[in-house]
Amino acid sequence: MAGVCCALAAARQGTKVILCQDRPVLGGNASSEVRMHVVGATGLKGGVALETELREGGLVEEIRLDLAVHNPQRSPAMLDLLLFDKCKREANLTLLLNTVVDGAEV
């Protein structure tokens, strides 16, 4: 998730980005391969929902809101598709799945 969010943020700021993932899906532990939901500063600890609960914000919040709308059944595979779609729609982002990088020339 960190790599996807970083790549999306940089691409939205106008940077040409190549996101390489050595797996067929994005999201790392949050993908359908591992199925660990996205956590962070989003735990309900007695706060009033959407008012005083801790929240991530930014791209994590955007992704979670998209999932709430497009994935009410909470299917793990829908996160894979949502992340793939977000990356493919960014003009400055080139996505390479099933790709390993073993060096770079600058």
Structure description:
- The protein is mainly α and about 110 residues long.
- The protein is about 35% helix and about 10% strand.
- It contains three helices and two strands; from the N terminus they run αβααβ.
- The protein has helices spanning about 1-10, 60-70, 75-90; strands spanning about 15-20, 95.
- The chain has a two-stranded parallel ribbon with strand order 1-2.
- Helix 2 crosses helix 3 (about 75-90).
- The chain is globular and about 50 Å long.
- The two termini are about 25 Å apart.
* Series of H and E elements: HEHHE
The amount of helix comes to 25-40%
Low-confidence stretches: none
Radius of gyration, Cα only, in angstroms?
15 Å
Counting helices, strands and paired strands, the structural category is: mainly alpha
Distance linking N and C termini: 26 Å
Largest sheet: 2 strands, parallel
The proportion of strand residues reads 5-15%
Helix count from the secondary structure assignment: 3
Question: What is the overall shape?
Answer: globular
Order of strands, widest sheet: 1-2
What's the β-strand tally? 2
**What would the average pLDDT be, to the nearest integer?**
85
